[in-house]
Amino acid sequence: MTDNNNPSFNSYDREESSPLLKKNLEDNDKVSSDAKTDTATPGSAGPEYGCTVNGLPLTHGSVMGEPMGRTQWDSSLFACLGRNDDFCSSDLEVCLLGSMAPCVLYGSNAERLGSARGTFANHCLPYTCLYLIGNSFFGGNCIAPLFSYPSRTAIRRKFNLEGSCEALNRSCGCCGSFVEDDLKREQCESACDFATHFFCHTCALCQEGREIRRRVLHPGFNAQPVLVMIPPGEQSMGRGA
What we know:
globular
């Protein structure tokens, strides 16, 4: 009977059962040592990965570790009727809702942005109350924009859209100091989001509605997987002759 406690037998058994184990281990040690050497080299130290000030992850853009460039809005702020494309009818609906029932448009935008069913009333009802209070006591919709402007910031961050400061810097070269600093830029963009909702509230809601409808399906249209069980067919056993 063989003694399994014999160290010479154990080492022999391992080498015999896997003759390439020793070679693979040596190769792995060599690769790991090379990786450590490259990491320890001062000139090869890569950028730290994390998130930018606006919550976007640092992904590879033109250079590894740099944030991806922002894109422009699909339509301008004052393009009330939208664009002549496949979403033309949807743009007309957005325009009518924004001018006649902004509470419905805001609730629909928030529901699509959250991609969750049942959140329409949670946003539409508070907006309606603030809308009625503003029109009753101040003669205009001046309170609801205080409640709705964070949705514009959320849309801009989620889809990596260009803000007002960046648009001004791109068109006329101003706001350069704010655009270069991430923290100042985000503070300036948030202030611009509030100003856009306060002074051009209906146009802002319509622009956000057109943007969301081109990027996100309505949560009610999301297909849910359905498990269908098909019963087996009738089986008969034939009797041999």
